[in-house]
Each structure stands twice: as structure tokens, then as C-alpha cells.
Amino acid sequence: MKLVKTVAELREEIAAAKTAGKTIGLVPTMGALHEGHASLIKAANMENDFVVVSVFVNPTQFGPNEDLEAYPRTLDADCKLAEAMGADIVFAPSAKEMYPSEDMTWVEVTGNVTKVLCGRSRPIHFRGVTTVVSKLFNLAQPDRAYFGQKDAQQVEVLKRMVKDLFFNLQLRVMPIVREADGLAKSSRNTYLSGSEHQAALVLSRSLKKAQERFAAGERNAAALTEAVREEIAAEPMSNIDYVEIYRLPELQPVNGPLTGSSLLAVAVKFGTTRLIDNVILEEK
């Protein structure tokens, strides 16, 4: 495996892979890799000839008073994990390398899909995500790009971007990877104290109960979200940002009973750490 840090180096590696007729898989990350990222890299390795993992803490998706400076940076460990999972390249550029102009060029998806859920409290977040991911798509020229279902809104935003900008690639969405106790894997889990980690288990527990109620025939969105909200609120260490249901795709508001496929998503703070989780409610 090779570590590259410049656009020129990455382009050289991609050109060689393309000349050799290799298919390319891209796994965009912000580093601090864990088992969730490992599952994405492993999938990319199984489905492609050449795998690029980007490790870049993207400053444009952090708002004021968010954890940009504190965000964990573990490049050496990330490279070891990426190599073990079959990556060929780790691309770890500087912010100046990815944003060479003082006046930014932005890629932005508009509409409900970026305004609800996390987009409501983090208004610049998805503009930063779509801008950096479009740059990575242009640089790596992947046949397939891999993302986790845990970031469900991000997935829907990127699906829109890929469709609207005619990116010639397949966007592969992999299942949420959870710890043995049910907590969704996240780089931010390292911020949790022992008691906060234990408290955060209420997220997966409440979502599982909602799934069970849905499977038993409950189709009232308000009833499902209220059940989840009550369960989470009963945990004293929780501070709820949102518990909401939207229709998939495009995250449209629910009018009437749930039909087809819907996203039940939560965002909750435990101490200073904000965690997200979700389940898809889908009629069989």
C-alpha cells in the first residue's frame, strides 16, 4: 500500500490503474478509522481491482464551535487498518492541497434533503460534504464509491449529487456496523466517558423497539417517533436534538400512514458528544 499526500501523486496513481484496465473503488473518510470503515474498505476490495481510501478531516463541513480541532487524527493507525483491509492507496492531503484557492468553489445540493435532520442545525455541513466528495470523485475517478448507512442523510444528499451532476459511478451504501452492545460505530465514540457510552446505548435500543412496533403493524409516524423520544428522554444523560421520520428517497415529510420506505433518524447529545443513528422502516 502507498501513502500519497498530493493531488499530482494521486492522479499519477489513478492514471496508471486506469491504463492497466483496473476498476477503482473509493472510500472517502475523515480518518480515525474503525470497524465501520474497515467494512467499507473490505467491500471495495472485494468489488474492485484498485482501492483508494481518502483520510481528510474536511474543514468546510464543520461549523463554528464544532469539533474540527479536537477531531481525532490517527494517520499511522489508519494506514495500517486500510492496508490490512486491502487498500492500495491512502490519500491524505492537507487542507491547502484540497482547497488551493482562497475564494472557494462550492458544490451544493438544495431542497428538503439538506434542510431537515442534521441540515437544520448544521446549515453549512452538507455543502462542505458535497464539495469535498465531488473533488474526490474527480480525482479518483472511481467506478464505485462506498459510504455507511449510519450517515443516512449524507447518503441521500450524495445520491442526489451523483444523479444531478451525472457522475459516472455507482454509490454503494453499506450497513451500519455496531459494537457488541449495539452502539453504532463512530469516530466520535472515543469522546464518550464510560457512563456516557452506557447511556448512549438507549439509541439502538429505542430504534430496535420502533422496528418491532413497525413489524407488528404500527404505521403512524407520530406514534413511532414519540415512542423513541420517550425511551431516549428517560435516560438522564441524553439531550435530544431530533427524533424524526421522513420518506425515502429525498427525505420528504410524512403525510398519512407510512408506506414504502422511510427513515427513522435520531441525533442526541451525551455530554458534549453528539451521536446519530437510524433505521430504515420498510414494508416487506
Q: What structural keywords apply?
A:
single chain; about 280 residues; alpha/beta; Rossmann fold; Pantoate--beta-alanine Ligase, Chain: A,domain 2; six-stranded parallel beta sheet; three-stranded antiparallel beta sheet; 10 helices; 9 strands; about 40% helix
Quick structural gist:
The chain has 284 residues and is an alpha/beta fold. It has helices spanning 7-19, 35-47, 75-84, 95-98, 112-115, 118-121, 125-140, 152-164, 194-215, 221-233; strands at residues 2-4, 24-29, 50-55, 89-91, 144-148, 170-174, 238-247, 261-270, 273-282.
The main sheet orders its strands as 1-4-3-2-5-6
Number of strands: 9
Assign a percent range to the helix content: 25-40%
Q: SSE string, helix = H, strand = E?
A: EHEHEHEHHHHEHEHHEEE
Q: Kindly estimate the percentage of residues that lie in beta strands according to DSSP.
A: 15-25%
Tertiary shape: globular
The CATH superfamily of the largest domain appears as: HUPs
Euclidean distance between termini CA atoms: 42 Å
CA radius of gyration:
19 Å
| Name of the CATH class of the largest domain | Alpha Beta
Q: Residue-averaged pLDDT, rounded? A: 97
In the predicted model, the low-confidence regions spanning at least 5 consecutive residues are none
Specify the CATH architecture of the largest domain.
3-Layer(aba) Sandwich
Count up the helices: 10
> Structural class given helices, strands, pairing?
alpha/beta
Domain count = 2
User: Biggest sheet: strands, sense, closure?
Assistant: 6 strands, parallel
| CATH topology descriptor of the largest domain | Rossmann fold
